[in-house]
Design brief:
Blueprint: H1 12-17, H2 21-37, E1 42-46, E2 49-54, E3 57-64, E4 69-72, E5 87-89, E6 92-95, H3 103-120
Antiparallel strand pairs: 1-2, 2-3, 3-4, 4-6, 5-6
Helix pairs in contact: 2-3
């Protein structure tokens, strides 16, 4: 079943439930791979899509269209060759449930996104109280 236009999902569970089984399965697998690659991330729902934040900042989002699934977020540099068999744009990598992104590639992309986030928004260490 596709998401009804007049009833947009407001959380990841509703979003996933509204997808066809093959897309839901592909995205649940992707979600697990993202979590494994970025253990400190937290789930988030924004822009009408499920995703993850790291240290309060967006990391990646994922979702489905009529004929594809996608990993959203600016594609890190250096992945052109690995992504040559997938449709890409500046902010998305499209794949299908029948031809998902390889787990090793998801891990590498997410790790690159984590590094980008850490450089862009360094985590500030708390100062310890004086003695």
């Amino acid at each position: 079943m596709l998401i009804e236009m007049n009833r947009k999902p407001t959380n990841a569970a509703d979003y996933m439930e509204a997808l066809p089984a093959d897309q839901r399965g592909a995205l649940l697998k992707l979600r697990k791979q993202i979590r494994a690659a970025a253990p400190g991330c937290e789930e988030h729902f924004g822009y009408g899509l499920p995703g993850f934040k790291l240290n309060g900042h967006p990391l990646v989002y994922f979702g489905a269209g009529k004929k594809h699934c996608a990993l959203y977020g600016a594609v890190p540099p250096g992945f052109t060759e690995q992504l040559k068999n997938f449709k890409t744009s500046k902010g998305a990598i499209q794949f299908t449930p029948q031809k998902p992104l390889p787990a090793v590639l998801v891990k590498a992309i997410v790790k690159a996104k984590v590094a980008e986030n850490e450089m862009r928004w360094p985590v500030k260490k708390m100062k310890r109280a004086g003695k």
